[in-house]
Each structure stands twice: as structure tokens, then as C-alpha cells.
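User: Some background: our group keeps a shared notebook of sequences we're curious about, and every so often someone picks one and asks for a predicted structure to add to the entry. Today it's my turn. The entry only has the sequence so far, pasted here. Could you supply the structure so I can complete it?
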Amino acid sequence: MAAPGAAAAQATPAPQPQQPGRPVTDQQVTAGDVAATPITDLNLKHTDIPPLLIQAEQHPYDLVGMSSCAHLAAAVGELDAVLGDDIDVPQAAKSKLSAGRVAQEAVANFIPFRGVIRELSGANAHDRALQVAVYAGTARRSFLKGVGLQKGCHYPARPATAAVIAERTPQQPVKAARQKPAGPRTTRYVSRPVVQGGR
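Assistant: Of course. Here's the predicted structure to add to the notebook entry:
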């Protein structure tokens, strides 16, 4: 007779990997995220913590293999791919309230005892572990950029300079002033009565 824990382990599907090209810090809610809210709460589907962030958590200040600016730039680029853009460059404007976020909250509110379920299922513990890993990855990226700055490296192996920020800032289109079509110049004379005060 199989143990109940073994049956539960067999019934639990493998965690789904993060969508390729989507940073773990991306808060944009998709239709799939809305549909998966109950499954996520039961900890049957969750975002895997990228190995790069686990490594950053274990060795945040390791400089093995980081002897050149090229190595530093590559390491920062890998962290950017997992974490999204660093705060030293302009961030894409994202609406804080989207239809997807509203729908996800609506679905979540239909689940009775959601907080208890998330705690018992381990979903909250996984979210906390992911937040710690993201923090470690962010700290490592900042550390590597500091080392690159000290070495005199170019961006991205150092914090963005004003020139890099200006290059990445979306330019607002300049509206040309409306010009009236040029016509023949005419002079207008206006005659008005002049009132002079008497003495």
C-alpha cells in the first residue's frame, strides 16, 4: 500500500518554467495568469527560481572569472535578462491598473480562505523565496557595476552615464508650429474717431 505522501507527490505536476524572454520581475498579467490563479494558489504552478539568481544568493560578491570588462558586461547582461532593466535606465511606462490585474484579483477573491490555502500549500513560501532571490540578483548586479565603474569599464559593465540615459530615453515628437499659408501682404488702415479733451 502506497503512502499518502507518495500519491500526492505523483499527482503534483512539475512546476512550469518561466516564459522565455520574460523577466521574473515582470508584473504584467496575461490571460493565462488569470486562469492559473487558483492553480498558483495551490502551489501546483509557480515560477521556477532561475539558477542564476540562486547562484547570486549563494555567492553575491564572487569575482571568479570577472577579470575583464567584457566578462562583467556579460554577467550584467545575463542578470538583466532575468531581472529586467536596472533602475539606472529609463523604465517603460506601465499602467499600474490593467484589465488583467483586475481580472486576476476578481478570480482570487472568489477563492474562500485563499490566504490559508496559499500558506498551507507553500505558495507563499515560494513567493518569499523568489523575492529573496530577486533581491540577491539585484544586489549582485549592482556590485558588478560598481566593480566595472572602478575598473573604468563602459556600460553595461558600469552604471549608465547621462549619454546612455539620453540615448535610451524615448524622444517625444516635436509638433511643428502651424504656419498660415503665405499670401500677398496687405496693409489695412483703420479709421477711428479721436476725442480730444477741451481745456
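Suggested note for the entry: The chain is about 50% helix and 0% strand. Confidence is low (pLDDT under 50) at residues 1-18, 33-38.
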